[in-house]
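agent> fetching stored inputs for the phosphoenolpyruvate docking request
agent> found them:
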Amino acid sequence: MRKPIIAGNWKMYKTPKESLEFVRQLRDKLKDMKDREIVVCPTALSAAAVVETLRFSNIQVGCQDAHWENEGAYTGNISPAMFKESGVHYVILGHSERRQFDNDTDARINAKLKNVLRNSLKAIVCVGETLSEREAGKTENVVETQVNGCFEGIGLGDLAEIVVAYEPVWAIGTGKTATPEQANEVHAFIRGLIAKRFNDDAAANLRIQYGGSVKPENIKQLMAQADIDGALVGGASLKIDSFTAIVQF
Ligand code: PEP
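agent> prediction call returned; pasting tokens
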């Protein structure tokens, strides 16, 4: 049985003060939700303080990227070892905005994933096609290349620490959601890729989140699909009411 996982990706929103005010409210509103994993991913600057505020709660904390090395001359970067010491649980890797603006290639995401796992953190690995790729009928090719690239050299024993997020780029922040059926089709395809690369059991246990304009109005139908195990939520995770409603789907 796969435990649903709802994660909020705050991107470059919320100052440290705003982040703490938000999670204090969230902690109280969601304190009874025990049958699903809840994760918030503030900016790196706020992560340690958010961890402290959520310490005895049922909400975990993620960050939005982490480096492939643990230390070094990499100005502006933060390593998984540093996040680990700060009490962070999850690291989002390969978000399409990082692929677009920060040179995250599959090879780089793979190196980061290995370092996240070496540091005993969990990962949310994002994959997804652009609109032109979907329109050209290349969705499966693109997703297969991304999954193969990101999972290169990852062992079966590490799979339990990894969540995949299918995020069609054309649905991120656009208000356009993939229909639940469209999303489920790609989720099932990803599960098949994992079965081929690892085995059927591993694929059956892998959690695959959908991301792309998830809102309180569409979460129920998405979660009703056989291969959708949660959501990675951008815009709607920034408001208490909408994020709470999504978590309580
Ligand atoms: C995201 O940032 O991962 C995302 C899915 O954004 P939104 O929910 O705003 O489309």
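agent> quick read of the result: The chain is about 40% helix and 15% strand.
agent> awaiting further instructions
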